[in-house]
Amino acid sequence: MDGIAGGIRSIENTALQLAIKGAEPALAEKMFSCMSKRAAEAIQDEIAEMGPVSKDDVVAAQKQIIAQARRLAEDGSILLGGRSDDFV
Known about the structure:
Elements: H1 2-9, H2 13-21, H3 25-33, H4 37-49, H5 55-74
Helix pairs in contact: 1-5, 2-4, 2-5
C-alpha cells in the first residue's frame, strides 16, 4: 500500500477532494482506506463543506488521479489489473 499512499500524497488536495466527491461510494471508500484515518476524515470534512461543483472540474480531477496511477504503474509502485484474474 505504500506505493498507493505515496501516490495519493503527491496529488493536490483540491484535486483529490473533487475526484472523490464525484466518485461512486465504493470507490471513495477504497480511496479512504488507503489513507490514514486522520487524512481520510479531513478530506471527508472538506468534501462535506463543498458546495456544488462542476462536472467538468470533477472529470479533470479524476483524470489527474488516473494519470498519477499510470505513472505509479509505470515505475512499478503499483499494479493496475484488468478484468482478468490470470496472475502468476
